[in-house]
Amino acid sequence: MSLEKEELKAIAEMVQIEMTKEEEEIIQKDLKCIFKLMDDQLQKIDIHKELKPMVSPCTHPNRLRQDKVQYFEEKEELLGALPMKNGYFYVPNVL
Fold first, then answer.
1. What does the pLDDT read at residue 46?
2. What is the pLDDT of residue 58?
3. CB 32: neighbour CB atoms within 10 A?
4. Which of the 8 DSSP states describes residue 62?
């Protein structure tokens, strides 16, 4: 992989760095060496031997519970403590 001069200029503009022509050439040459080194290292990896297919990014299985109806004994007591207006719960304006 190589980095074209236009791409390097676009990156430099995004990060607001000014470069001279000499600096552009040096950086482009250095990045080319870095990309080659990375590519060489990646080519050494035997992905069929080293990696297993990922079925899910989660390492723990989901723990599901049974859905069952539970009745709350104090429902009327709690609802009676809420402010009411015209038969509806009154909620003050938030905005």
1. 80
2. 80
3. 13
4. -
